[in-house]
Specification:
17 helices, TIM Barrel, nine-stranded mixed beta sheet, binds iron/sulfur cluster
Length: 481
Amino acid sequence: MTSLYTQTPLFFSDICEEMRLYIDTRRIEQLNAPVPLEEGYCVVHEMSESGGRFSSRAALYRDGKLVSENRYECPAPPGELENKRAAKRAAKISVYRALLSHFGTAMPWGSLTGVRPTKLLRDSEALLGEEGAKRLLLHDFDVSPGKYDFAKGILTMQAGLEPRPDELDVYIGIPFCVTRCAYCSFASFTPNVFKGAEEQYISALMEELEDAEALTGGRRVRALYVGGGTPTALSEAHLVKVLQRAAELARGADEFTVEAGRPDTITAEKLRIIKDSGAGRISVNAQTLCDETLVRIGRRHTTREFFDAYSLAASYGFDINVDVIAGLPGENADRLMETLYPIIELAPANITVHTLAVKRASAFAAANMEALPTDAATAKPLELACQALEQAGYRAYYMYRQKYMKGSLENAGYTRPGKACLYNIDNMEELCDVLAFGVGAISKRIFFDESRIERAANIKDLRMYLERLDDVMERKRALFL
Ligand code: SF4
């Protein structure tokens, strides 16, 4: 049993994220009084504000006995939003430090559990200057110097690539896949579910897209991304329909990407359809070049099919992204490098190195996880991958983290010079609005002056999306019109 008492229940789930960095548990019991349980780990967190300062104290108990504690203090700024942010940070930092002092192993990103450390660094630099932001990350959040340099390098890569204020991005989601990967937590439906639904979905999507021009409010589309799922899982006729509509919206855009993804869905005819639509970038994802692992993670294609699909795609002149994953079951650093080196040889425009995240909605979460490498064993392969990519001339240009990610690490996109994907930068750094269409797609409107973001999330369930399309469209209109 793992339990938590906090005087600031508003931050309960944020504090739980810190606890999960060290304690392997999904369920954390919320206590109503600061009395530790006699069994398992328990955090008791207390918070006070006086004289313009927050004081946050975290005590860690094991089987009822105090094993470590930490007190963190910081200014309590005026302004509701800033004040709440500072309080949350104080709570998280004190809990992280109490855990660190007991467990002894520092996390690479310290107490940061958010998705976008580079955005935090960017915003902090704007507020505190470069040195102030560096101090905040290294000395308050306890980010390791290596990860700080990594994040700083990414910001340097992004300099000059930011969107203009009158630009936005468009995302179109195709929620179909030929099989479901064992680590997948996306809205993706396999043939047993989407049999017959594809036709209905495409009509609904086309209807939803009828609003697109009005929703842009006259702003220029800078990048358009057709993702999923696997867009190339669609029939050729449906792919033509979606991409023709996408091409209308992408006219004059800097970038038009179609995520092909699964090599077993890529055919010469589908590549021709993508090419004819004007898209210049696609993904052909390997994940691993080990056939045994591919079977284990529920992907139906083989390594051979990846190479065939890649060379076919390359013959059409696309800028190609290839995804690989560190921390897959049965794989170690050597295995990851055996995947990475042949991919580097292919010289794709982008290589994205993911770290396995075992999300609740994935098959892995429900299965026996013994074959998965330990969290600590995932850090080394990631470091080696980064070194190999840098030696080959690639540079990390965007990154993000996910919940339940192995070793509290990150996903990072690497690019050859001049080939960075703008959509990935915009989306991960939240630099411009995103108009998103399709099941589970999330539109974002960013109110820069007020430092806030509003989202309109489309329904994730396919049947409900079809039934409640009017609501879906209305929600987006309310956000953008
Ligand atoms: S290809 Fe992507 S969206 Fe489809 S099942 Fe695999 S992880 Fe999920």
